[in-house]
Design goal:
The protein has 399 residues and is an alpha/beta fold. It has 14 helices and 17 strands. The strands form 4 sheets. It has a 7-stranded mixed sheet, sandwiched between helices. α3 packs antiparallel against α11 and α4 packs across α11. The radius of gyration is 21 Å and the shape is globular. It starts with a helix and ends with a helix.
């Protein structure tokens, strides 16, 4: 580590609230699927800002679209219409098949809005405020109080109790567990279509189909969290589309803006017409022209570059190469995931492996203490996969 980098890190530790145990590197710029630190060292990036930079770094068309909007207007507030928000909403509706859009500043805020919509929907039916929401164990939905309340890992919640009330937790891919928690007060079931932080667990089609049928029968809203698994990462624009099972409410963020902080929750017409009304929900920055210019351009570039086709071409090759590591090393026990959202499960903690990979020029992250997560830019090639495997394999040989 250079003296310059150490100086920046020391300064950060004095000034920033220590809520992250950061890796000892100061990143400076990116290009394509590579990042560079302030000393000029190159890193192959298989994290993409935690599934954010789907288009890779320094995409000129994306950058130019944002620069053009900056020169026009960045913010107006939601008391007025703006063209980028109208265009972004129209494009997002088209690729999702949903009917109503609310733009937020983050994924956690999208979850907050989805929870409020669900409770308002139930309130308008019976005027009661004792409705319950079923969430799933090992889920992760965000750090705000509402999102944290439906996050199924007690370690994230325990220091901040009490959470919002009337939340029950069921098991992923266990429909009987859902049935055990459903009652006349249940207004919504929320889940990630593919669990991310909880260990890269995709919903099984049979499970999701039964949950959808149950929700239809009892007029319960199905909320699918697509914040990490959406935006093409699993080989469909949204992971639920591969099942043909549509939610009542969907949340998205991360790659939606490809780096600009933005999220959204989307509702079907039934829910949109019978939940949040004027005055029920709002945001100062959400849907501002800059963020929506980013969304609009991202959706254009997804189509222009055939991003989903690339995912469906490269993902099977990534799975094959990861499976080779499972076969090669006894301490790598399995691979699981969908598309370019994959996890390698180890029989031991992976923190040292991730540090070793970074030393060798590869950026990885975990999903729990014993799982390495692979969420690269969606523009990666098979050659990039080979390079990643070469570096990771060299790290595993050292164990």
């Amino acid at each position: 580590m250079s003296d310059k980098m150490k100086e920046y890190i020391d300064e950060a530790e004095k000034d920033l609230l220590h809520t992250y145990n950061r890796y000892q590197v100061v990143l400076d710029h990116g290009d394509g699927v590579h990042l560079y630190d302030i000393d000029g060292k190159e890193y192959l990036d298989f994290v993409s800002g935690i599934a954010v930079f789907a288009l890779g770094y320094n995409n000129k068309e994306y950058n130019d679209a944002l620069k053009a909007q900056i020169d026009k207007v960045i913010h107006t507030s939601n008391y007025y219409y703006n063209v980028p928000a109208i265009e972004a909403a129209k494009k997002l509706k088209k690729v999702s098949g949903m009917d109503r859009v609310f733009f937020t500043n983050s994924g956690a805020e999208a979850i907050e809005g989805a929870l409020k919509a669900a409770r308002k929907y139930a309130y308008l039916k019976d005027g009661k405020t004792d409705h319950e929401i079923i969430a799933l164990e090992h889920s992760f939905h965000g750090r705000t109080f509402g999102a944290l309340s439906v996050t199924g890992n007690p370690k994230y919640r325990e220091a901040f109790e009490p959470m919002i009330g009337n939340i029950r937790f069921a098991k992923m891919n266990d429909f009987e567990s859902i049935l055990e928690n459903v009652n006349d007060k249940t207004c919504a079931i929320i889940m990630e279509t593919v669990q991310g932080e909880g260990g890269i667990f995709p919903a099984e089609e049979g499970f999701l189909r039964k949950v959808r049928t149950l929700c239809d029968e009892k007029d319960i809203l199905l909320i699918l969290d697509e914040i990490q698994c959406g935006m093409g990462r699993t080989g469909h624009m949204f992971a639920w589309q591969s099942y043909g099972i549509k939610p009542d409410i969907m949340t998205c963020a991360k790659a939606l803006g490809c780096g600009v902080p933005v999220g959204a929750f989307l509702l079907n017409e039934k829910t949109g017409q019978n939940s949040l009304k004027a005055g029920d929900h709002g945001t100062t920055y959400g849907g501002n022209p800059l963020a929506c210019a980013a969304i609009s351009k991202v959706l254009d570039l997804f189509e222009q570059y055939n991003i989903i086709d690339n995912v469906n071409s490269v993902a099977p090759y990534l799975e094959k190469r990861l499976d080779e590591l499972v076969d090669k090393y006894d301490f790598v026990t399995k691979r699981r995931g969908r598309g370019l959202m994959q996890g390698l499960v180890f029989d031991r903690p992976v923190a040292d492996i991730i540090v070793s990979a970074m030393d060798k020029g590869l950026i990885l992250i975990n999903a729990g203490p014993s799982i390495i997560r692979f969420v690269p830019p969606l523009v990666i090639s098979k050659d990039d996969v080979d390079k990643m495997i070469e570096i990771l394999d060299s790290c595993l040989r050292e164990i």
